[in-house]
Amino acid sequence: MYKVFLVDDEPFIVEGLYSILDWSDYQLEIIGSAENGKEALASLQEHPADILITDITMPEMTGLELIREARALFPDLKIIILSGYNEFNYVKEGMKYGIENYLLKPINVEELKQTLKSTVDKIQSTQAQTMAHQDMDILRSNILNRWVSGQIEHDELLERGQLLSLEIPHECYETAVIKPMIPPSPQHDDLIVYRNEKLEQVYQRVRSMTEHDELAPGICFVDWDSDIVVVFGYGSSEDQDTVEAAFSQLMDQLRIIYPFELLVSMGELQSGLDGAAESYRDAKRVQQFFLISPHHLILTNKRVEELKNQSGSSIHVPDWGEYSRLLLSLQQEELLQRIENDLDQLSSTEGITPYQVQNRVVEMIIWFKQAIKEANLPDPEEAEGYKSIFAGVFSSLTMGELKKQVMLAAENVMAYLQGQQSLSPVVKQVLTQIHEHYADELSLKLLGQEYNINAVYLGQLFHRETGKSLSDYVNSYRIEKAKELLKRSNLKVQEVARMTGYLDNSYFFRQFKKYVGVSPAEFKGLV
């Protein structure tokens, strides 16, 4: 089913369109409606449609303004205009944006049906052509990625470039890399699908603009890091200023169209076919400096050198004592505000480098983990979920992303401490015993004897406060330790079983597969 969006400031017109025909007969479904162009544009960005049916005269944003903005975002959108006025100027203006038809109110149902039928036929024809081009697009992307990563011979590059109608041979090259910072959307459950859709929109827009720009023609594609790459080829270095100025204007236009940040870096101008790869490496390398550079600038090596040569000043040091006080007193809002203030002060430090920023952020995250130990609290696996946070730190290109990672670490520790406060002393002792002696025999009977408490009551208390039975908690903890040993050592599976408290190998195998999903041997093979 193809998706239709309706726009009219007269509610009875929208209601009439819903009921005027059986839309499913034409492989169509109405996914939404709006009373003005501004509201419609916002809805379309969240829920793209195949066909837009819109009035011309509306408050907030006219139909023609809506068509212009929607066409910029969705080049393949099919548009049908409704109007109560038989104005040739409207028709002429609409034709500039490629409308399917201009229907007068009251609507002629037969004309509407015929228009919808022909529009659906056109969509299907376009999709068939798109599918025919997909294999060529895959080949194109592969060739261009191999080019900028230095993995293709010159003869093959030129031969494939001719096949793909790409103007590759030039005297010198300059490469731009665009990273769209697409935020999650609360309206979309699948974040990956949503981001891929938005990336495709930006890519198609950039490709259309650069490949048809007389002043800055470039070869556009998406690299293996999901960044948009534009390779500019010059007959001589004298063309560089003209192309850079035109590309800068293009980026200004894109930043108006899209509501999220576009981080843009450019490599040095390089000569020869291998120059594209050298320039591409430059552009990717300088991306890390967005941590300390304004995001609206096109970041270049020259700008990076300016940042490096700024007179340095002392790097701000957080008040760790105040952090401890706020953390242990569970004042989360105040702690997060202090973290944000400290990071803002850090990022504005003159002469600071991305490496120093990352080091200080890592220091802050490690400090949160250390706070658990200093409070004499057990350090379970659940409180150690730092691997993904550290990975996020080193892949972050903006202070906003870094802040999210630090805030996440602080919130995780705060939540853990809040949970610990609700634990009874005996359960805290049992958890400490498990974490320190997980390889020893552990049972409710033995632990009950050690802490002078009825075993049945201890089991009920442990389950109520941790949400797990004692055996389930012990097994899950042991299996996590077994995974670490399998990853970091050359020990045999049987040795790992014994070291993590399993004397029966078959029982260890069953528990490992239960918690991990594969056998220990298969897991070891994967890592």
TrEMBL record:
Residues 3-120 form the Response regulatory domain. InterPro entries: CdaR_GGDEF, CheY-like_superfamily, Homeodomain-like_sf, HptR, HTH_AraC, HTH_AraC-typ_CS, Sig_transdc_resp-reg_receiver, Tscrpt_reg_AraC-type_HTH. It is found in: Cytoplasm. The keyword Transcription regulation applies. The modification 4-aspartylphosphate is found at D55. SUPFAM superfamilies: CheY-like, Homeodomain-like. Residues 428-526 form the HTH araC/xylS-type domain. It holds the Pfam family GGDEF_2. Its main location: cytoplasm. It comes from the Bacteria. Keywords: Cytoplasm, DNA-binding, Phosphoprotein, Transcription, Transcription regulation, Two-component regulatory system. This is Response regulator transcription factor. It comes from Paenibacillus dokdonensis. The lineage of its organism: Bacteria, Bacillati, Bacillota, Bacilli, Bacillales.
